[in-house]
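Lab meeting notes turned into a lecture example. A postdoc, R.K., suggested we walk through two folding results consecutively so the class can see how the record format repeats. The first protein's sequence and structure tokens come next.
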Amino acid sequence: MNKRKVFLCILVILLIILIIVLAIVTKNKKKDIGYNPNVKLEDIKEDKGITGSDDIYEMVEEYDGRKVLRVKPEYLFKVALLGLYQKENNLGLIDSKISIEDIDNNYKIAKTYIIKKEGGVIVLPNEQKNFLDFISANSKIKYQFDEKNCLQVPDDVKEEEMSDFDKKLIDNIKSTSNTIILTYGTEYYSIDDVTGDIVKYPFVDLDPYIDYDAVRYENYEIRFVNPQGDTSFLVN
């Protein structure tokens, strides 16, 4: 009898705790403007203190129905690609307050310069030696780059001359329909979620063991490779 009373007391306590938790969650939902079905982009900006240009944000819905703002993947990619173009040509295109119009205009130039062919793996001239050195420990064949900076496999290479790494890498190159740009470094240009300013994102400082970080948009992907990372991501 005593055991039953103890069990019932525990059950009642657990129910009370559950009710309190649900009440807190419900209260927080009511406080967060993102749960308002009629909320607009400018409403969330004002509520969260977001000061960037409306043009770079989009409103997305999270798993629980709450609407939040995020920087459009399109602009994250454009800024990252502009950073590559600036680095390759030693330019000064980017500053923290660069306008949306300047991003759009300079992106067209950068894209034409970097992406000369759709599909495959692109490594810019200043980094091609770094790439070949990076894979040399696992590769048995000599890779080449064509006039559009796309990674090429020699036509006369035989399968028995390849390492397992080579076979997997070649299979990945042939099977991808995306355009993948490989570059080396420990940071890249991105956009601050709140201010909309252009900032350097130090991905290796945040995770020293990361092999690479990626910025993707549509069929394009830039992989920023940690120089101290592992090559396994190229064949996985």
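The second example is placed directly after the first for contrast:
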Amino acid sequence: MAQALAAYSDACTIPSLTPGCPYYRLDETGPTCAEECRGILEQMGVQRPTTTLTVLDGLVMTGVSRPIEVASATTPFDATKILLSELHEPVATASTTTLLLRLRDFAATPPASREVTDDQFFETWRELEKRRIPVEDVLRQQAASAMSSEVLRQIDHTDGVLTDEWSRLFRSCLSQQQHDHERFASWFHTRLAAWFGRLVESDLMGFLTWTVPPEALLTNVSPLASELEASWLWDRFTLTSLEDWATTSLSLEWRRAEGNSTSRCSERVLAARRIDPDDVARVALSRLAENAALISNPIRRPEERDLSTQQFVDRAVHHLSLGHPDSAAEIFTALAFMNPADGDALNNLGFCLIPTSAAQALGPLDRAAGLPMSNPTVNVANRAFVRHLLGRDSEALALLADVSPGDTTAYVWAEEDCGSFRLSFQRLDAYVTELRAHLLPLLRGEQ
């Protein structure tokens, strides 16, 4: 009885479920249930039987053994066939394969050429979220790359539908980069995919409307690390052949087979495609030699994936250390233009302007003071230093009077000679103390 119930449960998959099940019901979103069968199995103390497979030099892979009643009832998975058979399928009853491909195709179609509305896109998004698919990660991982490829394709065609702004950006970046055309296209694709990927979190409508990035941000944006779970789910539902899967996806498939998956995706959704562990092992082992470390431990530390000011600090410091403050200032000028209420962008812009024009730096630094910032004390120190450079020492000392830097560090400017600056990374309390000590004798008329 338990084996029969396990087979019945495994065969029940989203979106259709099993109409003949006593727990099956329909609500406003379509077929649903509370997965009572799985609860009954747990109450019966049923442990899913596992199987081990020795594949190479003692390497043992362990996975869940699917009941033969389930395996014999499955049909070969074909993503293309599924999509074509569901061209007009309503969102609520469409397969996860179809929904993922619709989501990607919508995003990768130039806004002027879309035949599907934004409302339909968000309806698809909501349905995928109900199935616990990490939609934002999928957009960053798959859609952003497809969008970048389509931009390049459109630029290469004279009859493309993109605005001239894209072509100007491409030509301007090409003139600045020391690459041949093929290497530059790869560089441009990577940076543009990172731009679109970060827009998902920072400006979703900008993502959907293909906002053209400021050149200063495109050339300095950091590529995003792979979204490993999103990549696995994408491969699992949209790539028919295991040979086309990423190595990390094969590894995560094995983790699921041996019961070690930490995926947010519903098990019932995953059960829509059944994969033979022997096939996964065969393909995975063919890549094991060249990707041994990656396949054994594909987990990576999470990173920030937006367009916040902090993501560009390292690149700005790089420009400053090379003596190119204008290049650094361009980054934060673009960020401040995108979000005029970004106190960190304005503070950093003012900081980058200090070596070339203290007078120009004063404006953004003072505007930043009235906005939220990650470290307001840095802004106070910058404003005091600029006022000192402009000969307004009493104002500078007044700003520092009540500052309590605490145990923090930051990049600061030190004036070695008149008009000569040195970039330094140091504790703020030490910097403020030094600046106060420098200002006091000046106000007393001492040399």
